[in-house]
Design brief:
homodimer; alpha+beta; Rossmann fold; Translation Initiation Factor IF3; eleven-stranded mixed sheet; 15 helices; 23 strands; globular
Chain lengths: 479, 479
């Protein structure tokens, strides 16, 4: 390793030394974000934003396939509108930013910068919904929202963050619940098949559910350090909001009805999940589906005759089937390797004079660093296959990490020992009482991540209180 | 025309009766927007947002072709940051919305909701720019901004609106000026070739330029009523902002330099321009490039055997080369015709039992209402050709309107007479003095739209003051 590379690599804190610092180093040095002069607010730089754009493009297409339409709502919510649903205002008002002046004058009513837009959507639904024929209405918007957090971290928690929020209304409770779960599955599939992040699907406890929801469902991902990251949520509201905001329609029987409602969202948190699920001490490792560049072409001995030209020709061919970057800067190949490893490009293509002679190139996987020589005649099949291998490799590593860090506890002693010794999921039975959930938090520092789908009870009692228990819960430390 | 159609059509005010009311009617009845509970803020409904999404998709691709990268900046600007450039703060502070409370506490420094983001970009550039090797930086963001307008109208002027803002920095003044004009041309081409709106390109007078810019360039479109709509602007800043925000880099000679800067933007105003350039008394007419549906398929006598199935089959074929909507609702064909005319779908495809017998369908242009019978074997060529004809037809009509409403005035008498008799462009020579520009505004109600590119002086004196004049100016009433 040349001296300059070493310097670049040394600039990242090792995961084992300080995982939190490693994370921050990646965010800044891979040029994903910059801090702004607005406390707690981030700048998404081109490389970070390009990842988010790819996420948006893929998810948006999925939403449209299932009949969702995009809209744009105002960024402001009048205080009185926000206050109509009691739980929601209690949940969100304490962390709102308030506009109190406009056009040089004090406003008669202050406006919250939206922390989430259920209230605005309800207000709109009340205007435009008339008959059962208008249902379902399945809307989504891509925007940013504001929550006045005290401590912030890039992508994971910031005062402003970017997300999508879906809001739908339906004629029946069953349809609304189907939608809620359909969207949860959409998120889970996206995480598992595009971001290569295995997730646990389940329902949140009442303590952890969304303010005002009847039920909240979640996908939980596990980071390399064993901490959980709530990566997407889907809420079923029943007719709670419809009643609070007086959203009605003439039903099939011509009687006024309240529709049943859902909302669901994922955010730029997903970028944090990608970093902490796949990254290593050399930097980011990006799943091919959302990598701004899937392949980087690095010419070796580029000053030698024909090398630059051949590298450009190869890059142009690769552009037909993959997002490609030709690095023809005057940095050394070693420096380029380090830089593009830091930025997590899944496959590197090296091409030097000898390779050209032999009509071949070198392909290097970012995740395993395996090198293979490939004939230049086979790029069209070899590169897509290798990208697929990287994707599968990332998923398998992440799954292995999660499996190695998932424990079952049957007694309070086991819970305490496991929680003290490890970060990861602790799987227990639970009686359903808030008191036991609070005990888990206060005494061993674990929050309930979810009541996972498809898990059968494996014991009869709650380890916290010894009372009968029917629910399985995954507990963990969480971001 | 059936009774129900007539009712629908009557619901729109005729352009001749009240153009402003016609415009509002279209915005609401074509379901482009809804008013919100936030005074002066709009909701973009699915059909309106879909138009904006198409605009975004096409423009974003153009920006990327010329090497621009998307980023996301915070929506807030600390007051002190906003204040660093004197002209900018004078221009924008009076119409800012201010956040003064966050997380239940009064903020130490109030935050403006961004009215435009030059200040934030400069602040970021100052962080990330080090060397001439980092230049140019060519960034763009898609977002909404807030200006506390007193009177608002859908798309044309609202307190929050959606736009893109490009911000670039360059090593030399010449490169920055090239960028400024390149982006102006990008906007002009987009308007003329995709939105089918002819525009006049030119430079704004100092009175009308952007607060803080050295030069502002504009594209001006003319609406059906003869009023002008400023449809996009591109600004050259020189190093004014770089100096105010201390953005520097080590130049090729290793001496600290200030980069030269540009910004440029178009907004959801473009949707207003589309409505008022092309619409008629039956509703919207959408240029095919941005129409959410380019073709609507309406089955005739759909209850007759085979009609629904054939209509679905045809719609599926059309989906391979155009955005298509099959209207298989149980409304009457007449009602559907009116509804989709209102919504401006460029081409209607009618298909009834007789058509099926003859292996044909009827294609109807939205703009001219011409009907043609087309063999079902020729859809793949006939429909794209017809869409192209609609597009060209729209452009030609708009150009004709503009040409018919452009007059030249050589004397103050002529200016007064023309301004009293017509809405449109009045073309004069101008001495360059602010006093004459103000006289035009106060005495005849005209603002300078621009000093158009490529116009040769056609007289020697300014009609306002009689002094020597070298510049040609287009004047008009404007939205």
């Amino acid at each position: 390793m040349s001296k300059e590379n070493k310097k670049l690599v040394e600039a990242i804190t090792a995961q084992e030394v300080d995982f939190a610092q490693w994370y921050t180093d990646i965010c800044l040095k891979a040029e994903l974000v910059d801090y702004s002069s607005v406390k707690g607010c981030l700048i998404l730089r081109p490389y970070g934003y390009a990842i988010w754009e790819n996420i948006q493009r893929l998810l948006d297409a999925e939403f449209k396939k299932t009949g969702h339409e995009n809209v744009a709502m105002p960024m402001f919510i009048p205080e009185n509108l926000l206050k109509k649903e009691g739980d929601l205002v209690e949940g969100f008002a304490p962390e709102c930013a308030w506009v109190t002046m406009g056009g040089g004058e004090k406003l008669e009513e202050r406006l919250a910068v939206r922390p989430t837009s259920e209230t605005l959507f309800c207000d709109h639904f009340a205007h435009v919904l008339h008959s059962w024929r208008d249902l379902p209405m399945k809307y989504n918007q891509w925007c940013s929202v504001v929550r006045w957090e005290k401590t912030t971290r890039p992508f994971l928690r910031s005062r402003e963050f970017w997300w999508q929020e879906g809001h739908t209304i339906h004629e029946t409770a069953e349809e609304a619940m189907d939608e809620t779960l359909q969207q949860l599955n959409c998120y889970a599939d996206f995480c598992e098949k595009q971001l290569m992040i295995p997730v646990v699907k389940g329902r949140k406890t009442d303590k952890e559910k969304f303010a005002g929801a009847e039920a909240t469902f979640t996908i939980e991902a596990m980071m390399k350090d064993g901490k959980a990251l709530q990566s997407g949520t889907s809420h079923y509201f029943g007719d709670i909001f419809s009643r609070a905001y007086d959203v009605t329609y003439a039903g099939r029987d011509n009687v006024l009805q309240y529709p049943f409602q859902t909302s669901w969202g994922v955010s730029t948190r997903l970028v944090g999940a990608i970093i902490m699920t796949h990254g290593d001490d050399s930097g980011l490792i990006l799943p091919p589906a959302i990598a701004p560049y899937q392949v980087v072409v690095v010419p070796i001995a580029a000053h030698k005759p024909g090398v630059s030209e051949k590298a450009a020709e190869v890059a142009q061919r690769v552009a037909n089937f993959a997002r490609v970057k030709l690095d023809n800067s005057d940095n050394s190949p070693g420096w380029k390797f380090s830089q593009w490893e830091m930025k997590g490009v899944p496959v590197r293509l090296e091409l030097g004079p000898k390779d050209i002679e032999n009509n071949q190139c070198v392909l290097v996987r970012r995740d395993t660093r395996e090198k293979v020589f490939v004939s230049l005649d086979e790029l069209e099949t070899a590169i897509p296959a290798l990208l697929e291998q990287v994707a599968q490799g990332l998923y398998e590593s992440a799954l292995k990490n999660r499996e190695a860090r998932t424990w079952t506890a049957n007694t309070w002693e086991e819970v305490k020992e496991l929680a003290a010794a490890n970060n990861g999921y602790i799987r227990t039975m639970w009686c359903g009482e808030l008191a036991c959930e609070e005990k888990m938090k206060e005494e061993v520092g674990l929050s309930s991540r979810c009541m996972p789908f498809g898990e059968e009870p494996f014991a009869d009692v709650c380890p916290c209180c010894g009372k009968p228990a029917k629910k399985v819960v995954f507990w963990g430390k969480a971001y």
